[in-house]
Amino acid sequence: MTHPGHHGHRPADVFRDERFAAMIEVEGELAAGLTDRAVTRCIELLGGRPGDVRRIADLGCGPGVATSRLAQTFGSAVVVGVDGSPVMLARAGERAARCGVADRVDLRQLDLDGDLTPLGAFDLVWAALALHHTADQRAALGRFGALLRSRGLLCLLERADPMALRPANELGRPGIWDRVESARPPERATVVDLTPASGDAGAFAPAGLELLHAGRITDVVTAPPGPAVPRLIGGYVGAVLHTLGDHLDPADREALGGAAGHARDIEWGEVRVTSGRLLLVARPRRSGRRR
Ligand SMILES: C[S@@+](CC[C@H](N)C(=O)[O-])C[C@H]1O[C@@H](n2cnc3c(N)ncnc32)[C@H](O)[C@@H]1O
Fold first, then answer.
1. Is 25 touching ligand 1 by the criterion CB < 6 Å?
2. Which residues is 211 bridged to in the sheet?
3. What CATH number should be reported for the domain holding residue 279?
């Protein structure tokens, strides 16, 4: 899945596109299991006391799938959802109302590259697929971490393996989705500076943070039927054609090329979705400043 805007220091126009926002929302729903797993890990690291969590920031909250989920899980907390895109925030608001948590979800339009201190201090700072959009990840890590109360946690989720879709419909080419998956290169780490594999978890210390947890989480779910799923598949097929092009079997490429333009008209059948994330959890270093 191609996610533009990685290098811009402002939310790319695409984040203000209603159809793209709808797709991000579906992706977020499909990744709900990953959110829950990350939350579980955070609760463990908080000493198993979710009731102590009173203020949560969801930075780059997008359409607010995790924002509402966090409000539901942490029943004593206010969740401040922050995003640069009014289109995303409108969806996050509608979702909070549907989930019955609107009274504890506070949505703010703000640039993550700017000053975040007006947001106040938090027990949990959550940033999913957001840090890599900032202009300077190390500087942003410092600003995110500076929002933490002394016992607070920063939870970062970034893309690990590329999202893989496996519709039952094989476009007349048995095994096509297996071949696509095995041809795809591993996702470039979106937070190159920070992954433990890079041996540079040291980026956390200058940001005043201590890394407590680093690992990959993966989940496989079946996509519920709905109009957004063909759009997701259309985007996936387009990204596969774009990134793999000549590496694909020519007949597979032809089949995918034929499907790319009219994914909405195709009966895809059951769609299995594999999502992966790099999960990094950090806390303020003991010598760091307190709030
Ligand atoms: C890929 S979406 C992630 C949404 C959600 N956190 C999730 O995990 O599904 C990235 C979000 O970050 C927002 N964003 C990107 N750069 C930003 C910036 N500099 N300031 C504020 N928001 C930004 C975009 O508008 C978008 O909603």
1. no
2. 282
3. 3.40.50.150
C-beta 252 within 6 A of ligand 1: no
Residue 63 has a pLDDT of 97
Distance of CA 267 from the midpoint of ligand 1 (Å)? 31
Give the per-residue pLDDT at 91: 97
Strands (E) in 174-264, as ranges, are 209-222
Residue 54 domain boundaries: 13-165+186-222+274-284
Residue 51 lies in a domain: yes
Mutate to test the pocket of ligand 1, among 1, 15, 58 (most ligand atoms within 8 A of CB): 15
Longest dimension (CA), the chain: 61
Q: Classify residue 89: in a domain, yes or no.
A: yes
Q: Please work out whether the CB of residue 3 comes within 6 Å of at least one atom of ligand 1.
A: yes
For ligand 1, whether the C-beta of 60 sits within 6 Å is yes
Number of structural domains the chain divides into = 1
Residue 267 in tokens = 């009966």
Residue 69 in domain: yes
Residue 81 beta carbon below 6 angstroms from any ligand 1 atom: no
pLDDT tens digits along 8-54: 445 568 898 888 888 889 889 989 999 999 999 999 999 988 999 99
Is residue 252 assigned to a domain? no
CA–centroid distance, 84 to ligand 1, in Å, is 7
Cβ-based neighbours of 126, under 8 Å, separated by 6 or more: 56, 57, 58, 59, 66, 70, 155, 157
Q: Whole-structure pTM over 0.70, yes or no? A: yes
- 247 CB contacts (<8 Å, ≥6 apart)? 183
CB atoms within 10 A of CB 237: 23
pLDDT tops 70 at residue 190: no
Structure confidence at residue 9 (pLDDT):
42
Q: How far apart are CA 116 and CA 139, in angstroms?
A: 12
Q: Are 81 and 105 in contact (CB under 8 A)?
A: yes
